[in-house]
Amino acid sequence: LIQLYMPLNFLGIVYREIRQALTDIERMFGLLNEHREVADAADAHTLPADRQMQVDFDSVGFAYETSRRILHDVSFTIPPGQTYAVVGHSGAGKSTLSRLLYRFYDVSNGSIRINGHDLRSVTQHSLRSAIGIVPQDTVLFNDTILYNIRYGKPDADDDAVFAAARAASLHDFIDGLPDKYQTRVGERGLKLSGGEKQRVAIARALLKDPPILIFDEATSALDSATERAIQQQLEVAARGRTTLIIAHRLSTVMNADCILVMEEGRVVERGTHAALLAAAGKYADMWFLQQREIQEPGGEGVVA
Ligand code: ATP
């Protein structure tokens, strides 16, 4: 029986390896497919590099499918270096804003401009070089943690990777791992928690050092210490960059220069945390509801 078991066990291992490799390839293609939605214009120019970048959404309308409009007449300007946060119920269109800014899709109406350049008029390469994304769910490659952070800037030297890890408060964690930066992570290696994965994404973004940062907050619940830590690292990452935060927890947005409240694809309120509380509108309702839930854990889920 053991003679039969050994090869079968071996085949099982091979099968799992192949399945994992296919999962990675599917994920890669998932990303590539998104990139295929848009193409460079024949006369596309390079977005001029600048540390100071202003983002303008000008009467933006958008539909993934023509029959269902997702965004209606969305206008706002993020001045260079400021942080704008978007809140609203699930499905309000928050993440769609970040997908449009990265030009995974083109707007259906209106325009998005960076320093006055319409996104459709610049090369995708130059646009994406200017933007760092910290996504909700970070894809980790089946490789070392060093490789996974360096992915933010493949030509970065080791010291730059360590510095980014330090700034994202990952260095001490990595230093405590048996193989330190050579520790393998991903599906076949060490599994990282949601908070640790998001920190890897922050380190990648810091390494890339882009003038514009998009932070798509994880929807999954983090414990409050991790949440505070991520909040701090986000503030470090946002310093000096034009930042768009897609927020699911209102605690993340309190210090933003401006909060945009979205409902069914429209911006229905905007202002600082203090101004929106004083206005006693939808944001204030969400805030007081969320405060009550923090005090009475086990209630309804988060609202933003
Ligand atoms: P959440 O807080 O749950 O992440 P959100 O406010 O970020 O929600 P979006 O992800 O922007 O919402 O989605 C807005 C709407 O667009 C939703 O109704 C969603 O079903 C729809 N949608 C999102 N992605 C696609 C897609 N690729 N194709 C078609 N519809 C989509």
Automatic annotation (TrEMBL):
Membrane topology type: Multi-pass membrane protein
Major site of localization recorded for this protein: membrane
GO molecular function, one term: ATP binding
Subcellular location(s) of the protein: Cell membrane
Domain ABC transporter per the UniProt entry, residue ranges: 55-289
UniProt keywords, alphabetically: ATP-binding, Cell membrane, Membrane, Nucleotide-binding, Transmembrane, Transmembrane helix, Transport
Signal sequence range: none
Protein's name in the database: ABC transporter ATP-binding protein/permease
Full protein: residues contained: 303 to 606 of 606
